[in-house]
Structure formats: structure tokens, C-alpha cells
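The authors assume throughout that readers already know how a fold can be written as C-alpha cells. A single example would do more here than another paragraph of explanation. An entry of this sort, consisting of the sequence and the corresponding C-alpha cells, reads as follows:
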Amino acid sequence: MAKTSKQHDVLVVSSYEKFSASVVRALSDGRYRDIEVRKSASLARRELVERSYDLVMINIPLSDESGVELAMDIVSQNTTGVIVTASSEISEDVAEKVTDFGIIVITKPATVKAVSRSARLMCAILDRLKSTQKKVLTLEEKMEEIRIVNRAKWKLIDEKGFDEEEAHKYIGKLAMDKCVTRREIAEEILDKYTKLG
């Protein structure tokens, strides 16, 4: 069995110690860095304020609420994956409420393999999502840099009489000479000519 390169942190929320212990055993295959257990929704909420988790597994109902509200709150506030386990009597109703929000529902009694596979699936989805978000962020940063550099080029054209090619080379040369990014030089140029204007 190949281990994933990234280990994930897991929070198990269950009012039943036997369930928590079985989930911890199911997830103790080296794929998870830290597995914490909380016995109620209120303790879980407090824990989630203190630190973030990649995956939260909720065994419903909880002692202080159904657990569905907790699941919905978690996915609405961040990109943590949520898996809910529910008895066969209520699992269809729970799934109807939460599936469109990306919450996986496992019907109890669940096998160790089902719990492990669902956790692995959710973590793989989250890893892909985070990777995509990083690419989008990088692309947005690159586009913003291009916009700033272009604005600086136009300032140089207006203020120094450069043509576009000269402005482009000027910014590039200053960036190389100062060992900084083109964006930093562009921001300096914009700042300088904005103050003068």
C-alpha cells in the first residue's frame, strides 16, 4: 500500500468512545499526521477555532446537537472535508440534506475499509482542490504583476517620453540591477510619479 506524500490532520467528533476508537484504528495506516477526538459539537467547534483540520468525521447524533448543523457550519466556513456517519434509519435523510455541500455520508454500521476509503477519497479531493487553488492564485498574481508593470510602462511613456520597448527594457534592467522583481520596480515607478503628480 502506497502512502500519500501529504499527511492529513483529522478531527473525529463522536459522543461514543467505542466509535471514536474504531475510527482512530481505521485511520492509523500512516496517512494521517494527527487524529484528535472530541465528544460533542461544542468541543469540536472550540477545537476548530484553535486549529484547522483537513478532515472532520462526525458520528451523528451528538450529545449536544444532531451533528448535521456542525457539518454544515464546517463546510460553509472553510475547505475542510467532512464525513458524517449515520444510522441506517436516518442516513438517507441526512444525505439528502448534506450531499450537495460535498459532505460524504456513511451508513452505520460501517466497515473499517469503508471508513478508511471514504477518508482517503475526501483527502484526495481536498488535495486536488488545494492544488487548483494554488494554481489559480499564482495565475492571478501573475496577471496582477502584468497589470502593474504595464501601468508603470505607461507612466514612463508619459513622464519620460519612452516608447513601449524602452519602458519595458528600463523596468527589466532596474529589476536586474537591484535584484528585485519587475513588479517591485513597477510599484516604485508608480509611487514616484504618483507623488510627483
The chain is about 60% helix and 15% strand. The chain has a mean pLDDT of 87. The helical segments are 17-26, 41-50, 68-77, 91-98, 112-160, 164-178, 182-196.
